[in-house]
Amino acid sequence: QVQLVESGGGLVQPGGSLRLSCAASGMLFVINTMGWYRQAPGNQRELVADITSRGRTNYADSGKGRFTISRDSAANTVFLQMNSLKPEDTAVYYCNLAQRSSPWNPLVEYWGQGTQVTVPS
Asked: 61-77: per-residue pLDDT in tens?
């Protein structure tokens, strides 16, 4: 099993910044992808950004130029630096880890409990 513990959410004024952290523990494999998703009320959960164990990053258009994902692989931790926050960024942000135990086994995903980010209009 894998446990993901998020921190860093909160209330921030438009234009402000927040840094989310997610620490993974448990049965982790060397090759995995960690990322951040978000879900606003009435909306589906959507990808914000993810990063592979090799450092390859992927961003949703909504965060490009404003958000930066990074990871400390030694500490099994992923970060999301969010700048120039907007009211539409308000959502619960979830940490995600996806990995396979071997190349021929299915991908297994794990989720954190979520952390609220609120940017008032």
From this structure: 999 999 999 999 889 99
Pairing mode, strands 2-7 and 46-52: unpaired
Which amino acid makes up residue 14?
P
Residues 6+ apart with CB under 8 A from 75: 23
* 33: phi then psi, degrees, rounded to nearest 5: -120, 130
Taking the C-alpha atoms of residue 40 and residue 103, their distance in angstroms, rounded to an integer, is 34
- 15-56 pLDDT tens trace: 999 999 999 999 888 889 999 999 999 999 999 999 999 999
Nearest to 24 by CA among 64, 70, 76, 90: 76
Strand positions, DSSP E, the chain: 2-7, 10-11, 18-26, 32-39, 46-52, 57-59, 67-72, 77-82, 91-99, 108-111, 115-118
